[in-house]
Write a structure and sequence with these properties.
Elements lengths: L5 E5 L6 H15 L7 E5 L5 H11 L8 E5 L16 H5 L3 E6 L2 H7 L3 H13 L3 E6 L3 H5 L3 H12 L5 H4 L3 E4 L13 H19 L1 H6 L1 E5 L4 H8 L6 E4 L6 H11 L3
Parallel strand pairs: 1-2, 1-8, 2-3, 3-4, 4-5, 5-6, 6-7, 7-8
Helix pairs in contact: 1-2, 5-7, 7-9, 11-12
Length: 262
């Protein structure tokens, strides 16, 4: 089964509008004429979405045809109303947003998002054809206690509760061991492959072998140009969700190039 790799830059709470403009102009100039056989996604802070949408729309004014797709870092499970500080899926669609990161460990740990909340957000995203990048992953304590498979199975089963096979086809799973996010510590290629293979086996249990073979599963956790090739060579790893190393255009490009050898 051939799956197109997907590389997503999660800028987290970095880069306002002016920095976004600087990044995109540099990125586009550096990638002009390059054949990067992968889906490329950038997730800026909400405040920078309008600038990113304008820049990409100007470079290629046909919706859905950008070389770079736009992602939001989160969305509300509600359509509208008295939810101060929240952003709805329909608001995101106005800025050519096609992906949305949901279930990131920082949202789970810092902001208390549960599997049920993440499941509601995935359902809401799919109502408007937004493609969730659904994050899962264990803490160091859970891994050391031998609970890796238990944690991942619960997160997948509860996060995808009542999600149809049709909707699953537009979902990307991002396996991010919490202990490797922003720490400089990366799971070994063997650890990453084993976890990805297990995630695919859970999808097979829930949906069957064909959907499991088709779904794209990214790795996230201190991905850098130096380790991208080894990680992306693993048979069940289909790209990366990248934090700090995607804040600089050349670094992000090098990860994509190293992770997609031609």
């Amino acid at each position: 089964m051939s799956r197109k790799p997907i590389f997503a830059a999660n800028w987290k709470m970095n880069k306002g509008a002016s920095e976004t403009e600087d990044f995109i102009k540099s990125f586009l100039s550096k990638t002009q004429g390059l054949n990067l056989p992968a889906d490329i996604v950038i997730a800026p802070p909400f405040i920078s979405l309008p600038k990113l949408a304008t820049l990409l729309h100007e470079s290629n004014p046909v919706d859905n045809a950008h070389a770079i797709q736009i992602a939001a870092q989160n969305c509300s499970q509600f359509d509208s109303g008295a939810y101060t500080g929240e952003v709805s899926v329909m608001m995101l669609r106005e800025f050519y947003v096609h992906y949305v990161i949901l279930g990131h460990s920082e949202r789970r740990a810092i902001f208390g998002e549960t599997d049920a909340i993440i499941n509601a957000k995935i359902k809401k995203a799919r109502e408007t054809n937004l493609k969730p990048i659904f994050c899962i992953g264990e803490t160091l304590e859970e891994r050391e206690a031998g609970k890796l498979e238990e944690v991942l199975r619960t997160q997948i089963t509860e996060g995808l509760k009542d999600i149809s096979e049709k909707d699953l086809s537009d979902i990307v799973i991002a396996y991010e061991p919490v202990w490797a996010i922003g720490t400089g510590v990366t799971a070994s290629s063997e650890q990453a492959q084993d976890a990805h293979a297990f995630v695919r086996s859970v999808i097979a249990d829930l949906y069957g072998t064909d959907p499991a073979a088709k779904i794209r599963i990214q790795y996230g956790g201190s991905v850098k140009p130096a380790n991208a090739a080894e990680l992306m060579a693993c048979p069940d790893i289909d790209g990366a969700l990248i934090g700090g190393a995607a804040l600089e255009p050349q670094s992000f490009i090098e990860i994509i190039k190293n992770g997609t050898p031609v």
